[in-house]
Design brief:
The longest helix is centred in the C-terminal third of the chain and has 15 residues. Strands 1, 2, 3, 4, 5, 6, 7 and 13 form an eight-stranded mixed sheet that branches. The chain contains eight helices and 13 strands. The chain is α/β, with parallel strands linked by helices. Helices cover about 25% and strands about 30% of the residues. The chain has a domain of about 180 residues: Metallo-beta-lactamase, Chain A, CATH 3.60.15.10. The structure holds zinc ion. The site of zinc ion (ZN) has 6 residues, from loops.
Length: about 270
């Protein structure tokens, strides 16, 4: 058996929405009932194959919309812990919703990669359907097209894509047509960055559907795939659950609530 390399994985919590209506969170939820909201993350993977950034967060000028508070510029936080965003070579995009593909110009040397299903979705007939358009931003899509013409955007085309030894990118769809999840080999074994395939742990625990989706059946199947690939909730990093911030420690006091260490087992409570 070949020894797989291990990678370090960190979550940067760049924004938070303390509360939101249940109807905006779960399919069939009460629009008048407020429930715990969402946290927003960008991720850094460091390893023998170099540094990968996963998703780039929403643009700061969208702060305040829907009660979302922008806490910090992800690229500035990276700089503080030793990663110069200006020299980052690779950015992986899990899908193209506005809170995952803003700030692309903060990585001027980077090549970006997304699934071809997602690019086809945001530049084709899917966008004529209002419910599919709701979480995309025209500015981001235009920027992705610019990157394509600059030969800085490439596409994953398979269901299971090898990014590097110990890093796999799986297409699950559902929430968006090209929604992907990352499986990464770390010192504690494989973990899964589920991104918006799993916004909240409740989705995998009870198969309660999130309110925004492209394909409901695929989204629920994606809950199962995410959990199966992770091998347990303690190895599954949901894309927006504030429990991630509760469960994983900061890398140091200076980065409390801001840079989370995903390489150690979570303190789940
Ligand atoms: Zn999201």
């Amino acid at each position: 058996m070949i020894d797989l390399p291990t990678h370090e994985v960190y979550a940067i919590r760049y924004a938070t929405q303390p509360q939101r209506p249940e109807g905006s969170t779960f399919l069939g939820g009460d629009p008048k009932k407020m429930v715990r909201g969402l946290d927003f993350f960008t991720y850094v993977i460091k390893g023998p194959e170099g540094t990968f950034i996963v998703d780039t967060g929403f643009n700061a000028d969208l702060s305040g919309d829907g009660g979302r508070n922008f806490l910090c510029e992800p690229s500035e936080v990276m700089n503080k812990f030793g990663i110069d965003p200006k020299t980052v070579k690779k950015v992986l995009l899990t899908h193209a919703h506005f809170d995952h593909v803003g700030n692309l110009d903060h990585y001027p040397q980077a090549e970006f990669a997304i699934h071809v299903e997602e690019m086809n979705s945001i530049t084709g007939p899917d966008i004529t359907y209002t419910p599919f358009r709701v979480a995309y931003h025209k500015r981001d899509t235009k920027k992705l097209v610019d990157l394509l013409y600059e030969e800085r955007l490439s596409f994953f085309t398979e269901t299971v894509n090898k990014v590097a030894p110990g890093i796999e990118f799986h297409l699950v769809g559902g929430h968006s047509r090209g929604q992907m999840i990352l499986r990464i080999h770390t010192k504690r074994g494989w973990i899964v960055l589920a991104s918006d395939a799993v916004h909240l742990y409740e989705e995998v625990e009870t198969e309660r559907p999130f309110s925004i989706f492209h394909d409901l059946q695929k989204m629920i199947a994606g809950y199962r795939t995410s959990l199966q690939l992770a091998g347990g909730i303690n190895r599954l990093i949901s894309g927006h659950d504030p429990k991630v911030t509760d469960w994983y420690p900061a890398i140091s006091n200076e980065f409390e609530g801001q840079v989370l260490d995903l390489n150690i087992h979570p303190q789940m409570n």
